[in-house]
Each structure stands twice: as structure tokens, then as C-alpha cells.
Amino acid sequence: MNAPSSSKSHGLSTPLEGTPAPPWDPNAPIAAPLCLYRPVVLPAWVDYNGHMSESCYLLVFGDNSDAYFRMIGIDESYRDQGGHSFYTVETHIYNVREVAEGEPLRLTLQLLDADDKRMHIFHAMYHGSSGDLLATAEQMLVHVDMKQGRAAPMPGDLRARVQAVAAAHASLPLPPQVGKPMGIRRKTA
Length: 189
Hints:
Order of helices and strands: EHHEEEEEH
Largest sheet: 6 strands, antiparallel
Number of domains: 1
Structural class: alpha+beta
Distance between the termini: 56 Å
Helix content: 10-25%
Shape: globular
CATH superfamily: Hotdog Thioesterase
Number of strands: 6
Oligomer: single chain
CATH topology: Thiol Ester Dehydrase, Chain A
CATH class: Alpha Beta
């Protein structure tokens, strides 16, 4: 399997697609949590109920991941030249409130944990004006060798950037939604 080219011949693209990752500054402060993406709810994201459709929450969280990837140096050239990328292997979305077309969003990202092949991240989506929490997403990402089709260790420079973010986020409290089980809660007699 060959790595995809950076052309936009595929169907779905992210707002940052084609934007090169900025140079990493090891001395720059790292926000805790990160706030890298502030979209507005687009008309295409709104469903027949008049609010953002459930699938679009995941789309927006994915765009937030893309902003984070570029921050740590992952862009099309990283994928095309090295044949590596991050794949999402698990996502848990927790919906809290509705949001309508044209309303502003503010997304944060917290790096919960990382090792040489994986990142455990947490997204929070807030209303850009009121600050109300709208939704969260907990995700496990795996660094993949796309040619081999399996997990692979991050290169040293990328691993160092991820560890810098992890260190900046180490003192953040664990969000209450992390690891939350899903099920029908029943009262015991």
C-alpha cells in the first residue's frame, strides 16, 4: 500500500489541509490545555432538528486533532515523505448541549498520556460566546507505518514534542468524562 499523495483528490478534507506545520520552538510555552481551533457551526453541519448533527461533532473533533498534529509537526509532508501518520483506534463522544448554525465554537485538547506509539487525547468543545461545554471526545491514537499497515514508534523528534506537551499537561486534572463507561444505569432495590 502506497502512502496517499497530498493532492485533494479525496472527498473529505480538513480546514488545515495543505497548511504546512510551523517550525517547532522548544522554548515556546505550551498552553494547558491547548486551544488551537475555533470554528463556526457551518450550515452543512446542521441536521433536520436544527442543530449540529452528531456525526459533525466527530468531524470537528477530527479537525481539532489536525490542528494539534500540525502543532507537533505532522502534516502532509510528514505523511508523504516518511509514510507515517496517526490513526484513531477508539473514540468516545459525550454530548452535553446542542449548538445551532452560525454559533461559534472553541475547542481544547488535553494530552492525557503517550508512549512511543500511542497518544491518549481529550477534546472539549465549548460554545465560543457563552463558554458552555457542548461535548467532549476521548480518543486513542496510534502512530502507524502506512506502508506496513501497523503501529510504529514515533521518530525521536516527534516523540520529544509529544513529551513536551505531556509535561505541560501533566498537572491538569483528569476530565470527569475520561474512561466513563456506557450503559443503562438501573436503580438497585
